[in-house]
Amino acid sequence: MKSTSNNDNQIESVFRTKSLTKNGKCVSVLSGVMLQQISTKIFSVKMDLALPVSRIWLLVLISSLQRLEKTGALDSPLLGSAHLGNDSYKYHEDAHLSARELISKYGYRGETHKVTTNDGYILEMHRITGPKSNPKAEGKPVIFVMHGLLCSSVDWIISGPKKGLGFMLADAGYDVWLGNARGNTYSRGHKKYSTIDKQYWMFSWHEQGTEDLPAMIDYITRNTGNERIFYAAHSQGTTAYFVMASEKPKYNDKIIAMFGMAPVAYLEHMRSPFLQVLTRIDKVVTNVMEVLGWYEFKPIDGLIKKVATIACQEENWTQDICLNVMFLIAGFGSDQMNRTLLPAILGHTPAGSSSRQLIHYSQLFKSNKFRKYDHGALRNYIIYKRMTPPSYDLSKVTTPVIISYGLNDWLAHPKDVRRLTAQLPNVYAELKVPNPNFGHLDHLWGIDAPRYVYSKLIALLNHFRS
């Protein structure tokens, strides 16, 4: 491994401070020090230990700044006062609005709720009681909707009315509760720890299943008076549900039906480039976490957020790079991405997670089992009374389950989905999206997600209500 000083010298030689004259002033555009700061802002490690994604984001950054310079749109090396006068570089407003602000902007009544888990994490939920024409929640059936890995409640509303699942459910007469898992943009509080503390980040999606989901379900049922509610989730949100329903079976009775989009439990056929690389080096990453304190996969913010919203606009030639960064985890080949929406999406994604969440998924791929977190033989024995982690008992997931999956999903591969459904005792329906190019993220932002997925979800929910 090269020393940090050598890396600094290399960065300086490639991305040397460059000056240009603008209105008679000499403006510094870019420096190696600045790049180093950006890299460590994305990941809590030095450049030489940062994951490959950060290097790609830096490429996006450099490309964008160079183009901004050529068009004369750059005033400051930090973009703090950048002129974005022409339409090519205007910010997408929704990239900078919170979930509550988005709900209000699009004409719906929203609420913010704080939920504290038994182990002290403070989670934020966003509620859509209804559109302005029917804003009251009283008497409506309740649905709890959960996001996936590196995502947040914004996923369900960023597409706007008639396209975002949260808004479509509200229009259909549901009281909608959007959850946020511990460690993401909205749920970073704790009664005892700060996000700079190692102890805060000692969780994976296992704890989201055993602690977060039960706490939010109890809060929802207590505040609405509905003893039973619906549950819908994407990706990691389905993983956490299977954990909860198998580890705390009593919660099966609190859910009328569970709708799982791109469900993840088994990863034998997973093709995600990012997770495959992580699987090969997971022990190295774990050691780096301990030595350097890298426990968090940071959410997008600050400078990177500004650059992403510029570089990833539809008319910008760097947008394909942005797409490739997103698809490093979820896979390529989809024809469903709404490119106009991409700057707004990247204003909120990635929303952050613990490093353990990613490592836990890599362990599933390596073991070819759906099992608990592998702490190493010694600690496994202390925690589990055995040298290897036990598998989750999916036979305990007795909730009626509806599954939606795509044929081009690199994370929730159809073969792995079928393996999952074969072990679930109460699968009500399996919905295969007919578009052969429909991928993992298309359940969230796909152009045809309302037609292929959301409308069918609502029809099935209405069936269970009748």
From TrEMBL:
Q: Which positions fall inside the Partial AB-hydrolase lipase domain? A: 100-159
Q: What's the domain of life for this entry?
A: Eukaryota
Q: Does Signal show up as a keyword for this record? A: yes
One of its Pfam families is Abhydro_lipase
Q: Which terms does the UniProt entry file under GO BP?
A: lipid catabolic process
Classification via InterPro entries: AB_hydrolase_fold, AB_hydrolase_lipase
* Keywords of the record: Glycoprotein, Hydrolase, Lipid degradation, Lipid metabolism, Signal
Entry GO MF terms: hydrolase activity
Q: Which family does it belong to?
A: Belongs to the AB hydrolase superfamily. Lipase family.
Give the matching PANTHER family.
Answer: LYSOSOMAL ACID LIPASE-RELATED (PTHR11005)
The name this protein goes by in its record? Lipase 3-like isoform X1
* Gene expressing this chain: LOC105262830
